[in-house]
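Page 37, top half.
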Amino acid sequence: MSDKARILFVDDDIRVLAALRRSLYPQVARWEMEFQSSPEVAVEAYRAWRPQVVVTDMKMPGMNGLQMVMAMRRIGDTARYIVLTGTADLRTAIDAINQAEIFRFFTKPCPSFLLVEGIQAALAAAAPTSVPAADTLADTALDKLPVAVLVVDSEARILFMNRLGGALSACGDGIVMNARKICRASTPADTVRLHALIESAIRNGDGGVMTLPRSCSSPLSVAVSALESSGDATPKAVLYISDPDNHPIPNAGEVMHLLGITSAEARLTHALARGLSLDEAAEEAGITVGTARGYLKQIFAKTGKTRQAELVRLVMSLPVTLPNGSVPGAK
């Protein structure tokens, strides 16, 4: 077997495979590539060939991309998987990240340089090592955050994004990434303002905050800050982007431990943080409204809060433990 890295590409559209073959031809010196239009045949190819990276479409007849990946994982969990999908299939792609631990996903059409970078990162992650690299640990930690993180240079070119950042930018609504990897807003005016904040952060260390309107959802909240370099001469800024429609909250057990309240009080607090009224929270808990009011007074005394809105803001500010590889808001 060759010492070259082995990459398997799977797509039921032979035109897509032909385009991939042409665009990735410069990589033949270092990659051994196989292109399959049938996911069932690709599974058998995986069994015999054991590629390090599999790049797959999601929507395919017979066996879809997620089913194929799960079949490959049952054979041997040694590869990293990258999904190429249309924006209409974004929810399916996010489900794939949750269920099959997909390494990266890109929307079609994907620039070849971006796909090459993703494959290189997957190969690096697949390489055996006794101690996880610091960058790998940092990436994993950033993927667990309930906010999108984008690192950009002075031209607003994206240098890094965590999984939630990738999901938001792939939606193309509010925050988008063009073919040159430039981070933009949905409108020219908002793009100008966003780029001004990035420039201010890099030049003066100021940065700032703004909202990014979306067509069908609540606006995204963005905070732009300078990113201190450590041995890297390239100035950078970091964008922290919060989606109010997909903001996770701690579960009742975490609320109980973090706020030092009882289990019953934590369940009531969790219900209120989810947007239920006190009457609705009481009904859900199977207690009377009077008992719920008594619990609420005890919660206020323990947390130092005096209003329900203040209590909800406190819960929303608590750290959240996310499942492995999950993206907030994905179902």
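Page 37, bottom half:
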Amino acid sequence: MKKIVFILLICLVAVLLIYNISNKENDQILEEENENKILSPLSGISASISKVERRPVAVMFDNHPNARWQAGLSQAEIVYEFFVEYPYTRYMGIYLINDPEELGPIRSARPYFITTLLEYDPIYVRAGGSEEAKEYIEQLEIADIDGLTNSEDAFFRNTKVGKKSPHNLYTNMENIRNAQIGRGYSSTGDYEGFNFYEKDTEIQGDNGTTIEIKYNRENSTSYIYNEVDRVYERYKDGEAHIDEYYNIPIVAKNIIIQQVKTKPIDNEGRLEIDLVDSGKGIYISNGKFKDISWTKGSKDGKTMYYDEEGEEIFLNKGITWIQIIDEKSDIIIE
């Protein structure tokens, strides 16, 4: 009997030793993984150094009703929604740490998108553009990947989604990165990111769990706060906004509404949007909103967002949607 007890004690000690060694090894692995990760300057999300230190990518997304929904848009860390020709809007997604397997539909450039992307020094992915935008790209020597002229082999017509040209031009991040290398573009970008809270923070402000932005009578964007996941679920023209490829809801941790001056400049309805300027805005996160202001001093300067005390705002870590709207657009927040 004593021998059995002794053997059992030895076995117990051995198990404890193995358990402790295993835990130490796991802790060491976790420490090593954490040491090799840093925060993305675009979202504050932790990712490998190799991904965070590479060059951002700015992708133009078609938002015509015949183009919906978009593939890979959920993987962008920052997304802008701008007016284009009435009554439509268009998206520009900024990518760094994620590598979507499908992106699209891809659409054309406008000058104000370029003024915005200069803040990120990215690879610019598009399909053509207005004449002014194309001149702008050439003059500024933008690292450009155009599906209509200089990198057609990086794009494909997606015949599986039931869309017709021009609303079916797609690509993926692997093709973009390969085109970046093939065209000799720099592997890193020179830009400044956002400030982020260390911990998830409830901002000081009024309740904002439902947001509706009316771009015009035929075009609206809405958000509804999901209290469980602490993100805003996105709706476009009254329909839930879904990622076409990943089949997941489009969500935002932060929403910035930036009010700007706009005016039509030609018979096609193309617009001039004053981004090198200053104005009012709203910051929304975690069910709260507060008034802010914005300023951009030069075309390649960073847009700065300030609270009412004049301090640069901090964002919560996660995806940010920046809604560029006209000063006369209707905003309903409840």
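Margin note: Confidence is low (pLDDT under 50) at residues 15-19, 28-32.
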